[in-house]
Amino acid sequence: MEPVGDTMPIAELLDERRHLLEVAHWMLGSRIAAERVIDEAYREWYGLSDRQRAGITAPRAWLSRIVGTICLARLSLPDPPGAAQGSPRERGRTDTAPASDVGAELLRPWNTLSPAERAAFVLDDVLGMATGTVEGVVGQSGPEWTEPANRARHSLRARRAEPTPPRRQDEIAHAVRQACADEDTERLASLLTPDVTAFFDGGGKVRALTRPVTGSEGVARSLLTLLARHPRTTLQTYPVNGRTGLIARYDDQVAAVVTLDMAGSRVVQVWVVLNPDKLRSWNR
Q1: Which spans does this entry mark as compositional bias, Basic and acidic residues (predicted)?
Q2: Fewer CB in a 10 Å sphere around the end CB: N or C, the chain?
């Protein structure tokens, strides 16, 4: 389990990404080329092992050096950095794709699971395959596939067994928002089930948690860190996927969309979308 202490406030996440974009844009003179460089830099970051990342004391400085190295490599190429950026029509299709992605993401929140995790859940729970068969198909064994399958199964079954009326859903969502605004860990934890799970979808494009956080205290602390009060950050309830969820803004930009899966009077799973591509339709 990734330590909850690795969580970063939204303000820091976006400031870091903006800083890296400014560096790349200044060097290459193209916003589109800069975006691609930033994506490549974050891929290198997530390509490191957990131990390697833990050993980097100044991640922003490390990422800045990677961005500079990538930009210098591109500038050494014979063609200008923006020469292969595609037509406006092609870029329009690229922008349309993330908008479709966010709809699918919010309609089917378990898409934040990896393909192997989703396969484990479908094969094991829906198709009822034997354990050994599932392990062979997904290429993993033991907890590597059973834990995510159990998480997804638990949330869906809990919601079916003890559905939360719409009015109660609204009340719980508003209570979660208020607990976050008050930075009240104990109050927030009381609104979560003891085995609640939180998923953070950064898409490899911001330095967010890459593994789920479980347990009411851990999830509460991770959410309060991510949604920490800041002069330029706001948090409000908002319709998300047909239910009341949370929207976090940094300045006027939507920086996070939070979906709350509930059973009875508590939250059983939290899904946080931080991927800038999946949030583009929220920022038009």
Answers
A1: 159-169
A2: C
